[in-house]
Design goal:
This protein is 60% helix and 3% strand. By secondary structure, it is mostly helical. It has one domain: dinb family like domain (Four Helix Bundle (Hemerythrin (Met), subunit A), Up-down Bundle). A two-stranded antiparallel ribbon has the order 1-2. Helix 1 packs antiparallel against helix 5 and helix 4 packs parallel to helix 6. The longest helix is centred in the first third of the chain and has 29 residues. The protein is elongated, with a radius of gyration of 17 Å. The chain starts with a helix and ends with a helix.
Length: 183
């Protein structure tokens, strides 16, 4: 039996939890906040950025899923997605081909403690998994979710999960490169 989109999303969010714990294991505050260069993010900033974006996505997912349940928008996959959504997914995926600067509202504060950032990040991953579970049985293409960048730009529910996971994978890889430089 093929793995469903939602199963894949749940597995990825669980993997991000494990990766974050591994990335931060044994780090003191100075190493957690260390930047390889003044214009590059620390491990803390990578995780904090994902928290900021995710905290906008979770309520949007909850609202869209609730609305879809009320409307009875059910469906079985596999689902196919249009070229615009696939293009946005490609932009979010690593490796980064054309780096984009994060908008000011998504830039994290530098110097936050690992004891604050890590538990919040782990909780966020659990919230993504809960929303993916709540989306089971819905038409993942028909249900639309506002994006964190603009409430006017809406993506299908299935692609919202895929793009969120790709964006997280991108910044987890960035954080891993920082950890590798730390030794």
């Amino acid at each position: 039996m093929a793995v469903s989109e939602l199963d894949d999303s749940c597995a990825q969010f669980a993997a991000f939890q494990a990766q974050a714990e591994e990335l931060t294991a044994g780090l003191d505050e100075a190493r957690f906040n260390w930047r390889p260069a003044p214009n590059q993010w620390s491990i803390e900033e990578c995780l904090a950025h994902l928290i900021i974006v995710g905290q906008r996505q979770i309520p949007a997912l909850e609202t869209a899923i609730q609305h879809a349940r009320e409307c009875g928008w059910t469906g079985d996959g596999p689902f196919s997605y249009g070229p615009v959504e696939r293009f946005v997914l490609d932009l979010a995926k690593p490796p980064v081909r054309n780096p984009l600067s994060a908008p000011a509202r998504f830039r994290p504060l530098h110097g936050q403690p690992v004891t604050g950032v890590l538990p919040t990040f782990l909780h966020l991953q659990s919230q993504f998994r809960l929303q993916a579970e709540a989306a089971r049985g819905l038409d993942l293409r028909r249900v639309k979710v506002p994006t964190p960048r603009s409430r006017f730009l809406r993506m299908s529910l299935g692609m919202t999960f895929a793009i969120a996971a790709a964006h997280e994978r991108r910044h987890m890889e960035q954080a891993k490169r920082v950890r590798d430089l730390l030794g």
